[in-house]
Amino acid sequence: MKDIDEDALRVGHPETSAAGLTAVAVALQRGFEQAGPLRTARSLVRINQRGGFDCPGCAWPEPNGHRKAAEFCENGAKAVAEEATVHTVTPEWWDAHPIESLEDKTDYWLSKQGRITEPVVLRPGDDRYRRISWGDAFDLVAEHVNATTPERCVFYTSGRTANETAFMYQLFARSLGTNNLPDCSNMCHESSGSALNPTIGIGKGTVSLEDIHDAQLVFVVGQNPGTNHPRMLSALKECRDRGGKVVAVNPLPEAGLLHFKDPQQLSGYVGEGATISDEFLQIKVGGDLALFQALGHLLLEEERRAPGTVVDRAFVDAQTEGFDAYAAARASIDWDETERATGLSRLEIAAVAKLLAASKATIMCWALGLTQQPHSVDTIREIVNVLLLQGNFGKPGAGACPVRGHSNVQGDRTMGIWEKPQEGFLAALDAEFGIVSPRGHGFDSTEALHAFERDEIDVFVALGGNFAQANSDTEALEAGMRRAGLTVHISTKPNRSHIVHGRTSLILPTLGRTDRDDKHASGRQFLSVEDSMSMVHSTQGRLEPVSEHLLAEPVIVARMAAAVLGGGHPVDWRAMAEDYDVIREHISRVIPGFEDFNGRVRQKNGFQLPNPPRDTRTFATDVGRAQFTVSPLEYLEAPPGHLILQTVRSHDQYNTTFYGQDDRYRGISDGRRVILVHPADLEDLGFADRELVDVVSVFRGEERRADRFRLVGYPTARGCAAAYFPEANALVHRDLVARESNTPGFKALTVRFVPHAG
Ligand SMILES: Nc1nc2c(c(=O)[nH]1)N[C@H]1C(S)=C(S)[C@@H](COP(=O)(O)OP(=O)(O)OC[C@H]3O[C@@H](n4cnc5c(=O)[nH]c(N)nc54)[C@H](O)[C@@H]3O)O[C@H]1N2
Ligand SMILES: Nc1nc2c(c(=O)[nH]1)N[C@H]1C(S)=C(S)[C@@H](COP(=O)(O)OP(=O)(O)OC[C@H]3O[C@@H](n4cnc5c(=O)[nH]c(N)nc54)[C@H](O)[C@@H]3O)O[C@H]1N2
Ligand SMILES: [Mo]
């Protein structure tokens, strides 16, 4: 942490509204600093425009009809500036920075250095990365992979990877003979998939952007859209303008949830901004299962009082199973326990139940506030129950909306990046390519962490991302990664995972979203992505790459696969790398919904993938109907002297990449090692505001410690605290995971504070 002055921390008042003029100014300033005015202007005008590139910021969809001239937000612009930077990390840079000198650098410092320009290698016994040719780099990968067995090789993907690249990458892993395909989704929305697949027969959301506009009621649960999905605020405002209502459920009074100033409208520049939430439930971390059980109970009670007014009986009878058991389980409720679990009063919950009962079209949106706790899958199943009760599937303005993170994380899964692939997918893949894919499950991200610890990984390839920082138990993970034989990072910029290298380590620099990809005999190429609402569309960068040595991701994957698998392999990797239409041809024959992929991806707005619950009210579950489920009540309770800690993103970061040191909406400047705690809890625990403490996490009798955090009095829910990801990841025990999905419990830590000594 040497490059950050911890004592510079400034704390102001949290803001009550998001976006507005400051957002535009901040975005432009960041762009000019990184990329200069011309590249900034060139890149910003192409974001999310037809024929332009997909914003690498988040997975929120673009409007289908009229697109505003500037279909981006402050944080999208910051993400673009981060990539479009003119600063470079050359082989000379690596030469001037022996690995030891990089050990104490933060990801903030590392990414500020710029775009990596050439492949580099760190060999055993050497003290720094050195230039290597692409050909030698791929031969080195082949040498290592072929010296071990496929199950000791792991292929990680971060969700920025485009569809075509992801498809080739999983094809490579399976051709080799492994399903070890962990991805960032394992750490993100896996719990959503685990809950949705068995209950509604699809692991994705069931709404379109138009549905959000048309909804009578939208819940925004466990999500901070003002920072992480800013364009969602425009959709929520549109919904309210049409008479819809919004309920926010969050332990933190996040700026964007309360008010919104639309930077794309003149009126958005001045005043308080539009109200976003009609009701704000300031819930305790982990209390959502209790909340949705209570809401289900109240809906059933209202239905008993006025039969036929709340429950959609026709839908429930025809399209669902398990209603009776669910209704029996929710017939009674322990209000004392519900209030304890949620930190909400019975009256507050009843007020929201009333809105729900009156709504004929409800959408439930959620993000990581629900997915990273032991009982996350139960919580999301409970949300499905409440939606099913009122028939909120397959009608306008209604449905489930897990708001995804990385801009193509959903597409990567559709393309087969999954450690537990389904038989139908593998059979189609094998038939198309004449390979025999392995059938056993591979490692997810948590299992990969365990495998690193047990020294079971010889080769770790990462297509993007920053695995060492993103995952739990930082210390153990880093130690394990350092013992691996070969680590390979396909990256745009340096990050901590490059420093925590295996005995041999390769960094392979790639083109990003904004870069032009035109070194192909068949001309300039484009790629495609799928957004949070199952829309598939093309993306094509325009900027001159910062170095002539960069290769496009599909080319890197193809050349790596060809080197590893050798000449006799049935897959024609070269043809796919030459012309991405060839990849799309294969995809169109393997993955349902991608028929005529090449034709439809060239349509004006791309195309929407089939979604049975939304399109036809059908549910491809085991029983052929949507499933009500019954979960016992569960919530997080901290023993005396402890709080429940959740980890969040600041307004100035993209996961493990930082744009700056501020969290403007929460009033925090120039510091990230902070813990937000309710002032009354600070007092009860005997700590002062701004006190410097060490944080101790407790899990199954084991403790982890992270030093030097400043306590900040903040209006969070009582009994809860919040810290930034990834600074707090060292505190997360690797066995603290969500049941069924195995997603790390990043929002479910039990912690106490000790005054920092010395
Ligand atoms: N600018 C920017 N955009 C991003 C990202 C980024 O880092 N920067 N990351 C991208 C990615 S990969 C993802 S997955 C998404 C993440 O998007 P979010 O899910 O919005 O991300 P977090 O910052 O983790 O915020 C979690 C929210 O849930 C709340 N919360 C925590 N615990 C609970 C709980 O128990 N119950 C309820 N109801 N709420 C709770 C927190 O207070 C916080 O508001 O954003 C994507 N977009
Ligand atoms: N405590 C805590 N931990 C968390 C979370 C949390 O809420 N709390 N959230 C989890 C979530 S939701 C996620 S998604 C993961 C994120 O985990 P990752 O996806 O692994 O991490 P990122 O920080 O998004 O990856 C950033 C790196 O990607 C590379 N990169 C950027 N653009 C490109 C590109 O176009 N191509 C390639 N090849 N590389 C590129 C750059 O080198 C950059 O350093 O973290 C998880 N970890
Ligand atoms: Mo994510």
Q: What report would you give on this structure?
A:
- The chain is α/β, with parallel strands linked by helices.
- The protein has four domains: 16-84, no CATH class; 88-185 and 408-609, Rossmann fold, CATH 3.40.50.740; 190-403, 3-Layer(aba) Sandwich (Dimethylsulfoxide Reductase, domain 2); 643-755, Barwin-like endoglucanases (Beta Barrel).
- 36% of the residues lie in helices and 17% in strands.
- The protein contains 31 helices and 31 strands.
- A six-stranded mixed β-sheet has the order 6-5-18-17-16-7.
- Strand 24 and strand 25 (657-658) form a beta hairpin.
- The longest helix has 24 residues, at 21-44.
- The chain starts with 9 loop residues before the first strand and ends with a strand.
- It binds ligand MGD (2 copies) and molybdenum atom (MO).
- The site of one ligand MGD has 34 residues, from helix 23 and strand 17.
- Its cofactor is [4Fe-4S] cluster; Mo-bis(molybdopterin guanine dinucleotide).
- InterPro entries: Asp_de-COase-like_dom_sf, MopB_CT_YdeP, MoPterin_dinucl-bd_dom, Mopterin_OxRdtase, Mopterin_OxRdtse_a_bac, Prok_molybdopt-oxidoreductase, YdeP_MopB.
- Keywords: 4Fe-4S, Iron, Iron-sulfur, Metal-binding, Molybdenum, Oxidoreductase.
Ordered list of secondary-structure elements with their pairings:
Blueprint: E1 10-11, E2 17-19, H1 21-44, H2 74-84, E3 88-89, H3 91-96, H4 99-102, H5 107-112, E4 115-116, E5 120-122, E6 130-131, H6 134-146, E7 153-157, H7 163-176, H8 190-200, H9 209-214, E8 217-221, H10 225-228, H11 231-241, E9 245-249, H12 255-258, E10 259-261, E11 274-275, E12 279-281, H13 288-305, H14 313-319, E13 320-321, H15 323-329, H16 335-342, H17 346-358, E14 362-366, H18 368-371, H19 376-389, E15 399-402, H20 409-414, H21 423-433, H22 445-453, E16 459-463, H23 467-470, H24 474-483, E17 486-491, H25 496-499, E18 504-509, E19 527-530, E20 535-539, H26 553-565, H27 573-578, H28 580-590, H29 597-600, E21 607-608, H30 612-616, E22 626-627, E23 643-648, E24 653-654, E25 657-658, E26 668-669, E27 674-677, H31 679-685, E28 692-699, E29 702-713, E30 720-724, E31 749-755
Helix pairs in contact: 1-2, 6-26, 7-26, 8-19, 13-16, 13-17, 13-19, 22-24
Bound molecules: ligand MGD (2 copies) and molybdenum atom.
